[in-house]
Amino acid sequence: MKHKTVANAIADKLRQDILSGIHEAGAQLRQDALATAFGASRIPVREALIQLEAEGLIQMIPHKGAVVTSLSRAEINDVFDLRKLLEARLFEDSIQKLTESDFAALDEIQKKFGIAIRDADLTQWGKLNTELHTTLYGRAELPQTAAVVAALLQKSDRYTRVQLSSNAARKRAEKEHANLIEAAKLKKIKPACDLLVKHIETVRADLLALLAKNK
Would you say which domain of life the source belongs to (predicted)? Predict the structure, then answer.
């Protein structure tokens, strides 16, 4: 249990460092150096790396060890195709059941997102984006779909932070989130789901454009 707790703490810190760009794509994460840095044995470090590999943030390469993965066109398309299908399904099932407390929570998240944009607080953008989407789908009674979407949102957190690297993208995301909340409040199921699909497609298009630009 102790090893598991330490491994989770190490995984959380490394995940944050990868998502925030401290460990860039292609960076090698050496187990012995990490063990020294965290003041831990190599066992929880290895467990943390296995967890991050399962999330797609690193890849274990023979004779090289753990390497931070790069953005992938194929993975972007795979993840965002699934997000369009499954998030729309959750949103459709959730909208009619959202409560006043849910909308109060959404408004608070939206307010925090605006503050994070103004403060250029990179660490909050992906977190708040995930919270907003999760809250919008929170009343759906589709536990298997919700579990898959939770994994997809965690995997795309890194992509979201990259996509939100431009001020224009951040402002557009803030506006699109506001539109999604308003459509949900009005219980306009089809227009709301259409807005969601368009929102996800916009993020995908931005990411593919960035990928092409950086080649």
Answer: Bacteria
What is the C-alpha to C-alpha distance for residues 28 and 64, in angstroms, rounded to an integer? Answer: 8
- 3-class SS at 44? helix
Which whole-number Å values give the CA distances from 207 to 115, 127, 156, 163, 169, in the listed order?
23, 18, 11, 6, 11
Distance of alpha carbon 13 from alpha carbon 110, whole angstroms:
25
Q: Are residues 205 and 129 in the same domain?
A: yes
The tally of domains found in the chain comes to 2
What stretches in the chain show pLDDT beneath 50? 1
Segment 42-45 long-range contacts (CB within 8 Å, at least 24 positions apart)? 43/3, 43/7, 44/3, 44/4, 44/6, 44/7, 44/10, 45/7, 45/10
> What is the reported pLDDT for 132?
95
53 with 114, same domain: the answer is no
Do 105 and 153 lie in a common domain? yes
Residues 196 and 114 in one domain: yes
Model pTM score: 0.72
pLDDT at 52: 86
Which of 68, 85, 109 is where one domain is finished? 68
Whether residues 102 and 197 fall in one domain = yes
User: Which amino acid appears at position 100 of this protein?
Assistant: E
Q: What is the pLDDT of residue 18?
A: 82
